[in-house]
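Request:
Um, any thoughts?
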Amino acid sequence: MAEKNIVIVGAGFGGVFAAKTLSKKLKSHKEYNVILIDKHSYFTYMTELHEVASQRVTPKHVQEDLEHLFYQDKNVKLLTAEVNGIDKDAKIVKTTHGDIDYEKLILAVGGQSNDFGTPGVKEYGFELWSMEESLQIRNHIENIIGQGAAELDPAKREQLLTIAVVGSGFTGAELMGEFIEQRRVLAKTYKLDESEIKLVLLEASPSILNMLKDRNLADKAFKYMTDNGVDIRLGAMVTGVNEDGVIFKDNTTLPTKSLIWTAGVKAKSFISDWGFKYGRGGRIEADDYMRATLENDEPAKDIYVAGDTLSYVDEKTGPVPQTVEGAESAARAAANNILADLGFGKSKTFAEAVSYHGFAVSIGSQYTVASLMGLNFSGFFASIAKHGINLFFYSQIRSMYSIFHYLMDEFFRTENGRNPFKGAISRLGNVLWSTPLRIFLGLFWILAAVGQLGSLNDLFWQHGLLSFIEIITGAGILIGLMTWPLAAVSVILTVVAWSTNGFDLTHWFLILSSIAVMNGSGRGFGLDFYVVPLLQKLFGGLWYGKAKSVYDELDK
């Protein structure tokens, strides 16, 4: 049977969600291939770019290699290429790799920053809507604050130490929240007083976070930022940017070398001549079934739209927002209707597929305002909820790899206390100090097995299978080999000994010691230093494949 291609252009939230959905539903239909095309070989978690820009997390935290996401989805083929256009009559997608036939097509190419033609933004400012842009900001802020710390001229020093963000939407507010925390780190690094690093949030309207219906949440975010030294300027209409700073409508200026523009989003400009009907922000309009609308107002045959490429207004929920849930809902509707076209279900309108649970806006790692499932709240629990939303997305695309690394990067590998627990549970530390405890614990189990604990011998076993397990557990912990699982065995052995031979305070000591050495102590003068990375490479490759910078799986 001839193979048929369902082509998805764009590996953002909408594209990845659609690919996962179609892959699962078409798993038993070998005649269909899902081809996912993107100019990058990785998926970018766009809503976390502010964390990269402010050095809260490393760049790899928001990058998920597409091979890792789709290695187990054998009917998905990855292609790293740029799309140059579409031939609707011939049903061909034109790419830098060549022409690709499609049976069905989803356009989810994403968006880009919209500066509304403001002079100087691109020449003298920064934008935040791609990995590349976040890295530019990341490097610039570190360098410019260093320059400012060394500058002796008061006016130049103030200019270099001023960071301005234009736009108080989700992106602008979250970026400013991260800068609040980064300022503490930079001030310490460059021996500055925190107050010398000025943070200015510029908003043209009379209020911030204008997407929030509950203005009480916006007021809380406003108060949190001002309490932490942010200069919020409302009604500040930016009319230009030059090498000296920001120019306002009233001709006043703000001297700065660090202007980050977050005031708008539009569709990718290269889709503007693809022959569709375009709405606000250059987005492609769609009908109720997410079918792209042609210039003659007719729905395009076999072409669907999702993500920031989409312009659609639902009667009940309003315009589809440029959010993760907005992209997911459109992708869910598009994928469902493609399956219906192929004879695998019934068509659904966007209204039938939409699923909005709410939102959470993080103002740094330790404060968030949220509205979820009808509840409005803020602070610590809202911050935890924000992480829950991110983890929920990864669960929907069935990526335990992503969930594990997200938890590690956001909670256990954070520097400078930048997590909701203020660093209290961060694993970043010298595991060498737990090495003596690990060695003692290992020796204890060996001595217990051979009956060399004196009066404590009766609490454990010196014969049979359990004695053998004691020796294996002790020897492994002693040399730091597979320390984490053997420490878990140590806890189990202790509980069994407790229930079988009676309670002693020694049992509590063993349980707590076993938990303590689970912190990676096997890497401190232990074989885990060599074995764990080797196992991660071996088994990770078997399950997730090998990451590459470029994919061409059309012949797979």
About this structure: The mean pLDDT is 94. The CA atoms of residues 20 and 223 lie 41 Å apart.
